[in-house]
Write a structure and sequence with these properties.
Blueprint lengths: L1 H13 L2 H19 L5 H8 L8 H26 L8 H12 L3 H34 L4 H18 L4 H16 L1 E2 L6 E2 L13 H19 L19 H23 L6 H14 L12 H24 L5 H12 L6 H6 L1 H22 L3 H6 L5 H20 L2 H19 L5 H23 L6 H4 L1 H34 L1
Antiparallel strand pairs: 1-2
């Protein structure tokens, strides 16, 4: 009952005309950006961080939530009509969705994706409503030692999970941690790594780094990969509604995709890619028409799209309740909280209930808005695909530069933005994940504070991190995330060597 009362208060916040306006702007911008190939929700939220600086935190996060959900919805349009996924969670949708578009059934593919996303988004938001408070109760047992261990887990999770190489992930993390050291040490009052530049005494602004890495670096990378061949966009023909047979073949995959997506999104090693592929394989195994998979099966669009959107809601559960980012977009949302001097975690539910519950309530509203926007206005979104790419990329870079300058009105921020942006471009070329860098910059100083507090309380005894069961458990999980892939690879190589010797 307590949760339902808090949710009702959240609806009272989210349904005010002012916040409703930001929710509508968020889902519209998110859908428009999600439609554009190569521009995902992380880049969009990063790009808009400076713009929302003057907004009330609650309104800003309601808009960010709308952008996040909208981008997830919009990604399916590009996958189906252009065979170019807007973000990684839509890769599976492109397989059969584009095949349906080639057969003249693009409208039905978009319809099952939109309705499936609505169903999954709503069910997953209900799960988020009840799971997040349970995680908060567990987190309230934490002291400084446990918080330090949790931050080590968060840093390890993002480093080990995002990207294909642990070494590259660690390089990105240490770069972020070193950026977090810049500024005045709060305990000693000494300046660190400021090189005599007064503007660096307050540290490097996380928003400038986020915009540099995700907006400037990512845009330079996408533009450098741009090919000048003509892209074929399949026009929508005939009825845009689902037939009785389409409904019959879609509703079960929607539900199965939802129940696969949410838990994977909430897990540190989850994300949106794994549940969408699992959903595709599950539907192929359960379908009465497995021979149609790869050639335009509607189940292969319905299930993965539902899993994609359910995972998006799942990502918010550990972020809001523990401050644990499990995806690149979650890392940027963490930077957004930092912009307002807020730290996601159990205390956020007590200190800012309007923000947390208003944001969760806005997810329900956003789902309805997205269904209304996506089905009748799909023709409008398709027209965005004809915007010349050079105009689009140049617009993003100008917008990012202006946004970073308006934060503090100093040139040093612009220099940092472009240096970080070029480093981000280099990281993308070398396949180094950029999210660990942002998380290291944000959580590094916080982990340092908790580390010092734990040692001060224990009178300098370092075993405090291993004698508290919760702290020990979190550190063991973090160690497993780093060591398990290395050990598994070593075992696999040894087996391969034995087999080679045997043959």
């Amino acid at each position: 009952m307590e949760t339902l009362a808090a949710l009702a208060a959240g609806f009272a916040v989210a349904l005010t005309p002012y916040n409703l306006m930001w929710a509508t702007i968020g889902v519209t911008v998110g859908t428009a950006i999600g439609v554009l190939p190569g521009i995902g929700p992380a880049l969009t939220v990063a790009l808009l961080l400076p713009v929302t600086y003057s907004l009330e935190p609650t309104s800003a996060f309601i808009m960010f939530a709308g952008i996040y959900y909208g981008a997830m919805y919009g990604g399916s349009t590009t996958s189906i009509l252009l065979n170019a996924p807007g973000e990684s969670g839509s890769i599976v949708t492109a397989i059969d969705g584009h095949a349906m578009a080639r057969q003249g059934r693009g409208a039905q593919a978009l319809a099952t994706a939109a309705i499936g996303s609505f169903v999954a988004g709503t069910i997953a938001t209900i799960a988020l409503t009840f799971v997040a408070p349970l995680m908060v109760r567990m987190a309230l047992l934490f002291g400084p030692a446990e918080y330090f261990a949790l931050m080590v887990l968060a840093l390890t999770t993002v480093t080990a999970v995002l990207g294909s190489s642990l070494t590259r992930g660690l390089a990105s993390l240490f770069f972020g941690l070193s950026l977090g050291l810049v500024g005045i040490d709060l305990q000693t009052g000494q300046a660190r790594l400021t090189f005599g530049i007064p503007e660096l005494l307050d540290g490097i602004d996380t928003v400038v780094v986020a915009v540099g890495l995700f907006a400037v670096g990512e845009t330079l990378y996408v533009a450098s990969r741009y090919r000048f061949e003509t892209e074929e966009i399949f026009a929508l023909k005939g009825s845009k509604w689902l037939s009785r047979e389409d409904w019959k073949r879609s509703w079960k995959p929607w539900l199965r995709g939802t129940f696969l997506g949410f838990p994977f999104g909430a897990l540190p090693a989850g994300g949106t890619e794994i549940p969408t592929f699992l959903s595709y394989l599950t539907e192929k195994r359960l379908s009465k028409h497995p021979e149609e998979f790869g050639k335009g099966a509607i189940e292969a669009v319905a299930g993965p799209e539902a899993a994609n959107n359910a995972a998006a809601a799942g990502v918010l559960a550990p972020l809001l309740s523990l401050g644990l980012p499990t995806s690149a977009t979650a890392a940027i949302m963490l930077a957004a909280f930092q912009q307002y001097g807020l730290q996601p975690g159990p205390t956020l539910f007590d200190t800012n209930p309007d923000l947390v519950w208003g944001m969760i309530a806005s997810l329900y509203i956003g789902n309805v808005l997205l269904l209304m926007l996506n089905l009748p206005m799909v023709g409008l979104w398709v027209k965005l695909l004809v915007i010349p790419r050079p105009w689009l990329y140049a617009g993003i870079l100008v917008f990012a530069t202006l946004g970073a300058y308006t934060l503090n009105n100093n040139v040093v921020d612009l220099v940092i933005l472009w240096v970080i942006g070029l480093i981000g471009f280099g990281m993308r070329v070398l396949d180094v994940p950029v999210a660990p860098c942002v998380v290291g910059l944000i959580l590094g100083p916080l982990a340092e504070q908790q580390f010092r507090r734990a040692l001060a309380i224990s009178q300098g005894d370092p075993t405090v991190f291993f004698t508290h069961p919760l702290s020990l458990s979190l550190l063991v999980i973090a160690a497993l995330l780093v060591l398990a892939p290395v050990l598994l690879r070593a075992v696999r190589n040894r087996r391969g060597d034995r087999q080679a010797v045997g043959t």
